[in-house]
């Protein structure tokens, strides 16, 4: 808990004492989308990354990134588990593997380059999602 | 002595007061300006600048002095947001406090601030220079406060008009839902002019349905089909009974005679084999698994009569000219067995024997049913004899995003009054907003309704200057003629395949170049017995039971029509060195990850073992160099190959499955090489 949280809490208490404001009106559209993000445990950008990951990556990396996709058993060297990989923490490394392929970082060529298929924005999304997969595990 | 030139003393006082007042006002304005929020923000930014680590970027970063603004005369916007958000397009501020932080993602690369400003995407009051009045949060009197990130894609849609806009997946999903849910059947929606939505024709329902089924369907379509496209019209029992009388009285065409068909000999085991062989599940789900192009069949036995199903399977186009379903070339015995299998396997156990067709001649109920049919706009989706469409039943949704939120009904719900919220509530509970509504209830999940809301919230009244609008040129409809056209119609190629931008999107690359893509003999063989080119794909091409001459007609037609001259001109004289280098590249690039070759490799892409017999070299080279050009979103990666590398790979792949001299390996009938 950072000092910012404490200040925020104090502020909220103070505001509560002074005003007793009625509950703010709901925004069902925003609420529906937030609820969806919360259920998935993903931010907006990570959620977009998930869509792309499911389409382009999951067939080998598996739905949860654990290297257990339906095509994984055909691959040698085996597909790494993204949820435990240390390299995933380095966003520029992840971005590079997605964009230029695993051969670009001195690994096997089995993970192909997507830099000409996906927009830079899409690669950002996938990068964030890969990192979210690793974070969820911890 | 008083000098007459001098003003009277009273005037002195007035001048003095006026002077003081001016001084006071001047000081107030001066101190207010000096103390303005944006000045202190800029001061803090200058402090921050001094701590930024990258001197190269620092040299280029904005000099924070005075009001900053972006003026977009063609949009009538002035955005002063960059007065405070000074680090927004400078990567050096990626970890700065939110106020000064670099804009996330690559959005400003594609939408530079100088050309787009901020409020085009974010909304809010661009002209304001303090936090509150800029409407970062909703404030009274401001119609468009800043959109939360969750719904921001609604603003992408104002400019990006294609049905599948890039980098806006929620908007794209919303537009897809609008197109697939049939909103266009009742509403005119700008951007969806070319989307058509038709339900089945109802003119022979009397012969089709078991009467007990219709009542449950009209009461709640989801009770029969969980993903029914038809909404729940909340019909009263009286309305249901009159509609039922109307619909069951429809007997325009009797089913085809099943002469010579001995139902006692029907073989459901043989029917099951046909069901699997012709791949009904590519389009129809059973027990929750399978395609979605056609309706789920899990309870078809509860719904239709045997004679009708036999007739429909034999010739679906006679009954439903617009159906996506193809006409198989099956014998009467095969159709009989398939019919028997479907009715026996996919039904509720206690459905009971099929009642004899009863005449429905209650003229009063039929007339009443006709009134209900028109009043509820059933004609928007369903053809019925004698009903002439009086136009779409729902209002046009053009400009719906600009409806005055204060004037809209919210059904007394404690929601903020915004057009978004109104649209959302209307989608979720059309009849709960305080006014009677003819709109059916579609039972969208909240996240789906929110996406549709985003798509509709991009429909503004005033159109943008053409230079701002990004739209795709709609394709001209494609209607092939002659014997080839008849086959395309019979086998409904365009339900799944695309030609000239028209057609479905269930299949591989569009067929526009298929003559330059496939070897002719391979195509003939494939049409007669479509095997799995990509084994991991579930929706496979049906086995048509096509006649050999039909397959040849198609192959010959595409070999002279659907061509790409550049591909056909490709030099096909490869040297052994090319082939060898291609083989090396094949392993260097990791093609084995996705493709089977000699029983090794992945199952994502096609098996390449017989590529030389399957594909033509010009196509292979073109595809390898730009796969996304031919199939956007393909899983074939674009390696950025040079023409020489692509040629080497083409040489290698073209050598697979053919003998060294270019003749086919067994089966000898398939001719490889040049045609």
Brief rundown of the structure:
Chain A has 138 residues and is an all-alpha fold. Chain A has helices at residues 3-19, 28-40, 44-61, 91-100, 120-137. With 675 residues, chain B is mainly α.
Describe the structure.
- The complex is a heterodimer of chains A (138) and B (675).
- Chain A has 138 residues and is mainly alpha-helical.
- Helix content of chain A is 55%, strand content 0%.
- Chain A has helices at 3-19, 28-40, 44-61, 91-100, 120-137.
- The radius of gyration of chain A is 20 Å and the shape is elongated.
- The model of chain A has no long low-confidence stretch (mean pLDDT 87).
- The termini of chain B are far apart.
- Chain B has helices at 9-34, 37-51, 55-60, 107-110, 113-116, 119-122, 153-159, 169-180, 205-208, 211-219, 237-248, 268-277, 300-303, 306-314, 316-319, 332-345, 363-375, 419-428, 446-456, 482-490, 493-496, 514-517, 520-528, 548-561, 565-568, 576-589, 611-614, 617-625, 627-630, 643-654; strands at 70-72, 77-79, 285-286, 289-290, 498-499, 502-503.
- Chain B is mostly helical.
- Chain B is flat, with a radius of gyration of 34 Å.
- In chain B, the strands form three sheets. A two-stranded antiparallel ribbon of chain B has the order 1-2. Chain B has a two-stranded antiparallel ribbon with strand order 3-4.
- Classes of the chains: A mainly alpha (138), B mainly alpha (675).
Total helices of chain A: the number is 5
Mean pLDDT of chain B, as a whole number? Answer: 90
- What amount of the residues of chain A lies in strands? under 5%
State the helical fraction of chain A. Answer: 55-70%
If interface size is counted as residues with C-beta under 8 Å from the partner's C-beta, which chains form the largest one? A-B, 43 and 52 residues
Shape designation of chain A: elongated
Number of strands of chain B: 6
**How are strands sequenced across the largest beta sheet of chain B?**
1-2
* Beta-strand content bin of chain B: under 5%
- Average pLDDT of chain A works out at 87
Contiguous low-pLDDT stretches of chain B (5 residues minimum) are 662-675
Instruction: Report the biggest beta sheet of chain B as strand number plus sense, adding barrel if it closes.
Output: 2 strands, antiparallel
Query: Which class do the helix and strand fractions of chain B yield?
Result: mainly alpha
Backbone CA Rg of chain A: 20 Å
Helix content of chain B: 25-40%
Number of helices of chain B: 30
H/E series of chain A: HHHHH
